[in-house]
Amino acid sequence: MKGCGDGAGDRLRKVLAAARFVDPVPRTIRFARDPSDEKFLNLCVAGGADFLVTHDHDFGSPELLGELRRVVPGLRVVDPVAFLRSVDPTDETGFSRF
């Protein structure tokens, strides 16, 4: 992507190449604490997501994480910095999938 430094454009291209469109998105998970966030959780379920990238601390509750991982095994809830590290081919964490 033009204007992105530090290889961010390359990482974004890899993410977009691995992305897929999901429609419709059934309502599988209910999230009473913040119903407006349900759409993101249900998209993770419908798409079999590997990552939920967010700064929202509500998604880190043990109860919600347990339910999410029950229906989407292997899902990782990470902040944007951790996600970018995971898609960086020079990252040594072993999370690079792209």
Explain what you see.
By secondary structure, this protein is mainly alpha-helical. It is built from 4 helices and 2 strands. It has helices spanning 8-18, 38-47, 62-71, 80-86, and strands spanning 51-53, 76-78. The protein has a two-stranded parallel sheet. The longest helix is centred in the first third of the chain and has 11 residues, at 8-18. It is globular and about 40 Å long. Residues 93-98 have low confidence and may be disordered.
List keywords for this structure.
single chain; 98 residues; mainly alpha; two-stranded parallel sheet; 4 helices; 2 strands; 39% helix; 6% strand; globular
Number of helices: 4
Q: What order do the strands of the largest sheet run in, or round the barrel if closed?
A: 1-2
User: What would you call the shape?
Assistant: globular
First-to-last CA distance: 17 Å
- Secondary structure class reads mainly alpha
Q: Mind summarizing the main beta sheet? A: 2 strands, parallel
Helix content: 25-40%
Average pLDDT number? 80
Poorly predicted ranges: 93-98
Rg, please?
14 Å
Question: Can you count the beta strands?
Answer: 2
Following the backbone from N to C, one meets helices and strands in this order, namely: HHEHEH
Strand content: 5-15%
